[in-house]
Known about the structure:
Layout (H helix, E strand, L loop, with lengths): L8 E11 L5 E11 L3 E5 L6 H8 L6 E6 L8 H7 E4 L12 H11 L4 H14 L15 H13 L5 E5 L7 H17 L1 E5 L3 H7 L2 E6 L2 E6 L1 H4 L3 H6 L6 H8 L11 H24 L3
Parallel strand pairs: 3-7, 3-8, 5-6, 6-7
Antiparallel strand pairs: 1-2, 1-4, 8-9
Helix pairs in contact: 3-4, 3-5
The protein binds adenosine-5'-triphosphate and magnesium ion (MG).
The site of magnesium ion has 4 residues, from helix 1.
Amino acid sequence: MHYTDMSSLALYTENLVYTYPNGVQALRGVSVEIPDKTCTFILGRNGSGKTTFLLCITGLLRGSGIVRVYGRDPWREFNETRKLIGLVLQDPDDQLFNLTVYDEIAYTLRSMHVPEEEVRRRVTLISKQLCIEDLLDRPIVNLSFGEKKKVAIASVLVYKPRIIILDEPTLGIDPASREELYRLLRDLKREYTVIVTTHDIELAAELADLVYIFDKGQAVAAGPPEEILTDIKLLERCSLRPPIITQLFLKARIDIERPPIRLEEAANMLSRILGEAQSYLFKNARSPT
Ligand SMILES: Nc1ncnc2c1ncn2[C@@H]1O[C@H](COP(=O)(O)OP(=O)(O)OP(=O)(O)O)[C@@H](O)[C@H]1O
Ligand SMILES: [Mg+2]
């Protein structure tokens, strides 16, 4: 898939290279094409360049090569691009700097000179959506890690960017919050272009429309999750593992064209296989040869 019209893409990068001042070459020519309204997961081992990539496409780090966000260049048109992209960092403490939750969520709207009444309306709406309305008057320093993560997400959603980027959203949260986050992402992907970096392969299997694999500062593979997450050789090469349900089907050597990546898909496959086995046994029991 190659797009000639970059503005029809949410994100286009070509040969993106970034070297940190200490000489570490974190990105060695990354080329990606992410269509509008897709949910893309970027997977890769520690240090493969995922976070550096996100910082470059939001214009916070400046490398070489081409980056276009809905056709805009974040290095030349930082303010225009900033409105299009909402980045939720891996560690909320790197992102939250206001005194109270309310001020934090309101911050970007105020910096865009949105009238205070509209700010109040949007902050209230988004905090209800994320079930954090009880936290609005609380000082940020007193919040738990999971609560801070939600505030960081709210502070980005509130200004309605076109792309929502989440760096390692499930890191450090409990199973109930992970379930909430899963539901939130499922809703977000209907409305926004969503880009997620994660080590949570199950989350990618559940939600991704498109998966990129990063390795040693390069995007080494891209495709639908059904294809990428069952490519055992590719995953091994990049020190990644397929989803647990895929591993189960591979270990059990169940004879199918492609192992499933999701629980529901696996359950359907198993009941079909069991159904076929049952009718085979039934047929052979009635008409022995
Ligand atoms: N501020 C920095 N200064 C120097 N080198 C850095 C800096 N930040 C990251 N690096 C290096 O750049 C490379 C890519 O790091 P990056 O944080 O982008 O990886 P990542 O894929 O996000 O890893 P993780 O899965 O651990 O979050 C690594 O070798 C890392 O050590
Ligand atoms: Mg990272």
